[in-house]
Design goal:
Number of domains: 2
Subunit structure: Homodimer.
Radius of gyration: 22 Å
Structural class: alpha/beta
Distance between the termini: 42 Å
Largest sheet: 7 strands, mixed
Order of helices and strands: HEHHHEHEHEHEHEHEEHHEEHEEEH
Shape: globular
CATH architecture of the largest domain: 3-Layer(aba) Sandwich
EC number: 3.7.1.3
Number of helices: 13
GO biological process, one term: NAD+ biosynthetic process
Strand content: 5-15%
Helix content: 25-40%
Family: Belongs to the kynureninase family.
Number of strands: 13
CATH superfamily of the largest domain: Type I PLP-dependent aspartate aminotransferase-like (Major domain)
Keywords: Hydrolase, Pyridine nucleotide biosynthesis, Pyridoxal phosphate
Strand order of the largest sheet: 2-8-7-6-5-3-4
CATH topology of the largest domain: Aspartate Aminotransferase, domain 2
Length: about 425
Amino acid sequence: MDLSRAAAEAADATDPLAGFRARFTGTDDDGPDRLLYLDGNSLGRLPRETPAAVARAVEQEWGQGLVGSWRDWVQQSGRIGDVLAEGVLGARPGEVLVGDTTSVDLYKLLVAAADARPGRDVLVCCADDFPTDRYIVAGVAPARGMTVREVEAHIDTGLELDVLARALDERVAVVVLSQVAYRSGALVDIAEVTRLAREAGALVVWDLSHAAGAVPADLTAAGADLAVGCTYKYLNGGPGSPAFLYVRRELQEQLRQPIWGWFGQRDQFAMGTAYDPADGVDRFAVGTPPVLAMAAVEVGARLSAEAGIERLAAKGRALTELVIALADEWLGGHGVAVASPREPARRGSHVSLAHPQAWQLTQALIDRGVVPDFRTPDRLRLGPAPLYTRFVDVWDAMDRLRTVLGDRSHESYPTERSRVT
């Protein structure tokens, strides 16, 4: 592999997604000291179309249309859901809904799935999964007289399928897993896990937060049951933007979600005295959706759908391969180790690097115009986003990291424990 900067420039010149970069703010500067943003797996950049879309929702739809704009707004959740279903998630129309937070959506689907497996008293989750997912599982279990069975996963290489298989038996009602591990980027095979769970009679709820917009989920082809995910990472919906949920069409009429709100009611404006869930995926709605925030989500969702998930995934693999190759070539002598799966098929679109002073390295890089993030215990996480990150951006960021390690300037920064918060 040619690791020269010229090779990175050549890769950018032939990148089929290159044109999307100009559709995001903050990408105009081409100078040597420009900001190198490698935290797209935490918060995506602002699409240039988003301010106008939000302003239109505020000034025209709200300001002029007033309550009459609800004729359009009530369709928002399903309309954006269909964009994500067909363009990003490999699902069918009418299977995805946008509106609540990831945590609320996970709670709804987990409880609904547990109710659909009466007589089973175990919930399975991964011990190394994102904290919110584990907290929600831990909260639901005792409230329903169930227990939690946590499966171990390697901090760098992720969950092994044989470990999961040993945890599945006739007591398991629901499995909760992330497609991409938040710390290492380790990728789990949705189809294979679904097969294992189905053989045991269990349902699976997937968290696609670190995958959607960067890694194909192929939910229909995989036979996936249920899924949730955020929209503010690779989908560029903005900070705190509403999440999505997915319910396989064949399950929709079987499940009854636990939060009975008027947007999930069959005839919501009849204001009936009894709750009667709507048909299809609409029954998983709850209350009034955040209309203004949804306007931003729709822009990001349509950008990702336009780019195409296969092209996004291919570029994501290439960008992370470059991170790993440069880390091996330049950083091994400085005590840096790759802490993500090396096989592209087992990795999402971010890479973690292990170093005893990862916190200090993170702060030193930020001060030098590189934005990564830190994850415990000692991981520097780099998330190049395929829609707007270039190969030269990765090369230059790794070069600045090499310089910081070489001059040991990170050592002047306080440790995480001693920092002022």
